[in-house]
Design goal:
alpha+beta; 9-stranded mixed beta sheet; single chain; 6-stranded mixed beta sheet
């Protein structure tokens, strides 16, 4: 036949009826030397036939093809395994693509990858990706695995995918080959073991010879531990070592498991090395579904808890303050398994290329919402849900790059609440869809832009998941915690000169913590300075009441969903509710309601004063945050809930901890003296974030509140998109620093409250100002502690709120409006928006923004003509 190919061993050619173009050949061996023998014959024959040959080198073993045996027709590709499965597989996929059709391949020993990945599952995934592609390209490729080193499931997958599966034995100085699968070929003695004598392969047709041969072979199915993945066997060995192993072997195992389960580089890895022992890792593995790393968010949660329990006694923290957890982890390898087994790897590969990074993401996002999980994985999902019973759970992203030093990914990936009500089938379906949604969020445009801007788009960003029981209690048909919030070890929003930026802060809400981490419409969490917890950030009781929390996020167990409900409605529905821990009754407003005929309707203000007055409890929270900051040697950010036990003791559930990306306060800068008020654009006290600055402003972009308020929602979204276009063409923090001003809240999802931009549409600005426009209900929201704040800090954007209604503040629009609006020059095709979006060029006039943390002063002034 035209496409027949010789193995280089004539007798073997006769046994298997030659190789065919497209064949993948997998050798099961006991020793690498045996594989090297058949590789040498195969390569020698390929050289004679003048074939294009490629050696894929990645193993720790000695090269299969020595340098002296290489020739010009052989190309050696050295592939790094350190950067993870995706980078490794994509590198080989690209090299195969470049080599094209009819190339010949030798791959290093696949079992070596177990040391790097620790998982049979991922070797099976690699084979599912590469081998069909080699088959399509009419190549011939040699692979080897160690017999008995892999699970039955992995070998079954290899057997199903490959064209030839051959056992190679070495016994009593003789070599035996035993074909187990030969695709589309058959012979009367093909599947018998054959003894190789020189070029001949003699079948063991005599029963006595066959029995003698098989008597020394231990049947692979007798190895009970091969029913499980290498990953599970590895941790079984770790569990045994924990009981009886010698210290040296235990330390080696510990180092290996930390690398495979947690992380293998950076500062988090060093902390994990210091705090996690073998018992910790085995316990984590016992709650993991699938294989691979548990991701950044899960590591942060576990590491912070281990630090606090270790340090509690010496730091005077009540050991019962921290509520225990029973979280589960979906290993990162499941993410790739989901992609591979649903047939989307080629699309994933195209999406990772520069020209497909955004263009292919939408298609992959759609697919990720539609895939199926393997039956074995679904069974583990079911058992996990059974352990939670009908308690609400949350499925949280925990990607490999998330919550690390320098890259918080705050709010970039989904977290999905599952009310977890209904029959087992319904609960499983809801959970699976939650997993799909978090997987699909890796293709969200904001997440893609975030990774690209930080040079992470080529890194291995597997998505692990953290599944947590929702902290809280049943309140009739509702479920929610007493309080939730975020805490920072640094307070960059110090609105009063009595406050210490080093003391830290909290952002507190009643109910689920979604309202603490997100900018929410028409609502305001309580901002708490830990050194002055009762000090309000507002200057009057009326302002405190107005800018407080009016809505509550909670889980409706009857509706089986996450809902938002007005506080007044919750009070009406639950007559027994006691809000004294989180608020106070506004008696003036309550009396006013009674006068209007609304009897027995108490008006609550959620100010958290009772909890904040508990000095001992606040000190404990402050101590926790400061301990973590000290150990991390870096500012930190935590998410938590607060509940009360039956003994009325408050407990904290620490849900997350990560390095807090902050900009240093910087040295104080001198303000200009003897200023002319006509040159001042903005002058105020407080209400800014970004430290001490002296910042040149080349351009001022102003979304005019009066005109914006007159637009319909569709046009308001159009304004947001146009700002996004300016972000790409004009805004440049280095060469064209821009101050962007607009009404209400930037980044809101409700256009009536501000401009609904995505953060990727404003991430090139130097300074962002939110201008209050009270007549239209558009008010700034000092979002310190939210995901939006994290975006501002990571992008090094200065933030200020412009509040003209405060008499001591000065907002001089005449300074900019006397200049020519160059919006039409910048975007002539959108000329009709020039009365809404105004762009002013100050590049020749020394517009400068000053701020001072100590005095809380802020000044934006045009210094043209001054020395």
């Amino acid at each position: 036949m035209k496409n027949q190919v010789s193995t280089g061993i004539s007798g073997l050619d006769q046994v298997i009826d030659y190789l065919r173009l497209g064949d993948n050949v997998v050798w099961q061996v006991d020793a690498l030397a045996d594989y090297r023998l058949v590789v040498a014959k195969y390569i020698e024959q390929a050289k004679k036939d003048q074939r294009s040959c490629h050696y894929i080198r990645f193993g720790d073993h000695e090269p299969l093809i020595a340098p002296e045996d290489q020739w010009p027709g052989l190309t050696v590709h050295t592939v790094c395994t350190d950067n993870g499965f995706e980078a490794f597989t994509r590198d080989i996929y690209d090299q195969v693509t470049q080599a094209g059709i009819s190339a010949f391949y030798v791959f290093d020993h696949l079992s070596d990858l177990l040391n790097q990945w620790g998982s049979d599952l991922m070797i099976g995934n690699f084979f599912r990706i590469i081998c069909p592609y080699l088959y399509i390209l009419d190549t011939v490729a040699y692979f080897a695995v160690t017999r008995g080193a892999h699970s039955f499931e992995t070998i079954a997958g290899i057997r199903e995918t490959t064209q030839l599966l051959l056992d190679l034995y070495h016994h009593e100085d003789a070599i035996y080959v035993h074909p187990l699968k030969v695709y589309q070929r058959y012979g009367s003695t093909m599947y018998l073991p054959h003894k190789m004598i020189g070029e001949q392969c003699i079948p063991l047709t005599n029963s006595a010879d066959a029995a003698r041969f098989f008597s020394f072979i231990v049947p692979s199915f007798s190895q009970a531990n091969r029913h499980v993945d290498y990953w599970d066997r590895l941790f079984e060995d770790a569990a045994r070592l924990r009981q009886s192993g010698d210290p040296l072997e235990s330390d080696e195992m510990l180092e290996k498991l930390r690398r495979l389960l947690l992380t293998d580089d950076g500062r988090i890895a060093r902390l994990a090395h210091e705090y996690f022992d073998l018992t910790d890792l085995v316990q984590i593995k016992n709650r993991e579904i699938g294989t691979g790393k548990i991701g950044g968010k899960a590591i942060g949660m576990l590491l912070s808890r281990k630090i606090l329990t270790t340090k509690a006694a010496e730091e005077g923290i009540d050991p019962e303050l921290l509520e225990p957890h029973d979280s589960y982890y979906l290993g990162a390898d499941l993410f790739y398994t989901y992609i591979v087994q649903n047939g989307w790897w080629t699309l994933r590969t195209e999406q990772k290329k520069d020209d497909g990074y955004f263009s292919k993401a939408e298609e992959l996002h759609k697919h990720l919402l539609e895939g199926k999980f393997p039956a074995s994985v679904r069974e583990q999902f079911q058992q996990m849900l059974e352990s939670f019973g009908q308690s609400p759970i949350i499925v949280r992203s925990s990607s490999l790059l998330e919550d690390d030093f320098g890259n918080a990914f705050a709010g970039k990936y989904e977290s999905i609440f599952c009310a977890n009500q209904g029959d087992p089938a319904a609960r499983l379906a809801a959970f699976e869809q939650a997993v799909r949604r978090v997987y699909a969020s890796t293709m969200d445009p904001d997440a893609l832009t975030y990774r690209m801007k930080r040079g992470l788009h080529r890194k291995d960003e597997q998505m692990a998941l953290l599944v947590q029981r929702v902290s809280g209690d049943h309140h009739g048909k509702f479920f929610y915690p007493l309080m939730a919030g975020v805490g920072h070890s640094k307070n960059l929003y110090v609105w009063n000169d009595r406050l210490d930026a080093q003391a830290g802060m909290l952002r507190l809400v009643f109910g689920l913590g979604t309202r603490a981490v997100d900018r929410v419409e028409g609502d305001y969490p309580r901002i708490v300075a830990l050194d002055q917890p009762l000090l309000s950030s507002h200057d009057s009781k009326t302002a405190e009441n107005t800018y407080s929390q009016h809505y509550v996020d909670l889980i409706d167990l009857e509706e089986n969903s996450l809902i938002t409900i007005p506080l007044e409605e919750l009070v009406r529905e639950d007559k027994s509710i006691d809000l004294s821990e989180v608020g106070e009754i506004d008696w003036d407003e309550t009396r006013h309601l009674a006068e209007l005929g609304y009897q027995n309707q108490q008006k609550w203000v959620l100010n958290f004063n009772k909890t904040l007055s508990d000095d001992q409890f606040i000190r404990q929270i402050h101590s926790m945050i400061k301990i973590l900051e000290k150990v991390y040697q870096y500012p930190i950010d935590i998410e938590f809930t607060i509940n009360k036990h039956q003994d009325q003791k408050r407990v904290i559930n620490l849900l997350q901890c990560r390095p807090l990306q902050t900009k240093s306060v910087g040295a104080s800068v001198p303000f200009p003296e003897n200023i002319d008020k006509r040159d001042v654009f903005i002058e105020a006290k407080g209400h800014f974030m970004g430290g001490n600055v002296c910042m040149n402003i080349n351009y001022v972009v102003y979304v005019k509140p009066e005109r914006y308020a007159q637009l319909n929602d569709q046009d308001r979204y159009q304004v947001a998109r146009l700002v996004g276009q300016l972000n790409q063409t004009l805004f440049d923090p280095e060469n064209a620093p821009t101050l962007l001003l607009g009404p209400g809240r930037w980044g809101t999802s409700t256009p009536s409250l501000g401009v609904p931009v995505n953060f990727s549409e404003i991430d090139n600005i130097a300074a962002l100002a939110e201008v209050s426009f009270e007549t239209a209900g558009m008010m700034p929201e000092l979002s310190f502690g939210s995901h939006f704040f994290q975006d501002l800090v990571e992008a090094n954007v200065f933030y200020l709120a412009v509040l003209p209604q405060i008499t001591t503040n000065y907002f001089n629009l005449e300074l900019i409006e006397k200049k020519r609006n160059i919006f039409i020059k910048m975007m002539p095709q959108h000329y009709r928006w020039a009365d809404v979006i105004q762009v002013y060029d100050f590049s020749q006039e020394k517009m400068t923004l000053f701020s001072d943390i100590t005095t809380q002063k802020i000044l934006c002034i045009c210094l043209a003509g001054r020395p």
